[in-house]
TrEMBL record:
The keyword Acyltransferase does not apply. Keywords: Membrane, Transmembrane, Transmembrane helix, Transport. GO terms for cellular component: membrane. Its main location: membrane. It comes from the Bacteria. This is Putative low-affinity inorganic phosphate transporter. The chain crosses the membrane at residues 44-63, 83-106, 112-133, 140-161, 223-245, 312-338.
Length: 342
């Protein structure tokens, strides 16, 4: 019975990973599609490929942060296998619900923060605030603001440097060069998306396994977790969430290939650095949005549609509390069902 429950929840975690890729496909392909460098179908295949090969880049710092940096894993494990399974199930379903809602609304909210919010909400009924890791949560909250600002700064610097470097070239030649370079930059950003986002679910799967059937073993991330999570997110990216692509690629600002290159490279480098060096599960959505706004702002204040940007920011603000609330509701329903069945 326990093994069956564990398998089901691991499957739910991989479903979340698939939806994460589906929801966040816009992050990886919006700029390369909006500049017409790649067709939508080729763009999602390109992005999915780099999502998957990120599995072989090494490092699982983000996975460890998600597994032990948001909730007190040892306290939760001490509550028993049923508590572990209920908390993780509720966290995943709450995060999935919020992701699907924001996809339907066409808002590029953060899957990372949806999952973090789900874990916070699902933990509260079991452990209260004592079960939450304040430092880890504060770091994630801080980077809601910092990651888009860093991405914006990087993109502005790259845009200015790129524009200056080709100032004596004809517009046609510049366009041709940066169409080719955008294949590289979109690959960098898709690689960073796989590096950051796939690791979140590895941490969740590890909590399920090492908190239940493997509770006598030391917490770590196995190779099969790495491959399965990258495969799931790559498959989700391949199927793409086109509603959000329209928001990211067309509604925020108009991008030329040189701008797409600057946005993707600036955002991708930011995410890779934060994930590899410090293991911070930042939002790829927030980072690329900041980068796109940064590129648009180099053309003047009016080049950015600030009303659309405002809607996106409100989605950022509400993501953690909304997904936490959903997870609490799911936990209550799950607890009621378990009591009835038991």
């Amino acid at each position: 019975m326990l093994l069956t429950a564990v398998v089901v929840i691991v499957a739910v975690a991989l479903i979340f990973d698939f939806i994460n890729g589906f929801h966040d496909a816009a992050n990886s392909i919006a700029t390369v599609v909006s500049t017409r460098v790649l067709s939508p179908n080729l763009a999602v295949a390109w992005a999915a490929f780099f999502n998957f090969i990120a599995a072989f880049s090494g490092g699982v710092k983000v996975a460890n942060t998600m597994g032990k940096g948001i909730i007190n894993f040892d306290m939760l494990k001490a509550q028993g296998s049923t508590a572990v399974l209920m908390v993780i199930f509720s966290a995943l379903v709450g995060a999935i619900a919020w992701n699907l809602l924001t996809w339907w609304w066409g808002l590029p909210s953060s899957s990372s923060h949806a999952l973090a919010g789900g874990m916070i909400g699902a933990t509260l009924p079991v452990l209260g605030f004592a079960g939450l890791m304040g430092t880890g949560i504060a770091t994630i909250a801080a980077f809601i603001v910092l990651s888009p600002l860093i991405g914006m700064t990087m993109a502005i610097l790259l845009m200015l440097a790129s524009t200056w470097s080709v100032r004596k070239q004809t517009p046609l030649k510049v366009d041709t060069w940066f169409r080719r370079l955008q294949l590289v930059s979109s690959g960098i950003f898709s690689f960073s998306h796989g590096t950051n986002d796939a690791q979140k679910v590895m941490g969740i799967i590890a909590v399920v396994l090492f908190g239940t059937i493997w509770k006598d073993r030391e917490f770590h991330i196995d190779w099969w977790m790495i491959l399965s999570c990258h495969a799931a997110i790559a498959l989700g990216t391949f199927f793409g969430g086109w509603r959000i692509v329209r928001t990211m690629g067309h509604s925020l600002t108009k991008l030329a290939p040189i701008g797409g290159f600057a946005a993707e490279t600036g955002g991708g480098v930011t995410i890779i650095a934060l994930a590899k060096l410090w293991g911070i599960p930042v939002s790829t959505t927030h980072t690329i949005t900041g980068a796109i706004v940064g590129v648009g702002s180099t053309k003047g204040w009016r080049a950015v549609k600030w009303g659309v940007a405002g809607r996106i920011i409100w989605a950022w603000v509400f993501t953690i509390p909304a997904s936490a609330t959903m997870a609490i509701l799911v936990y209550g329903l799950t607890w009621a069902v378990v009591r009835m069945v038991g």
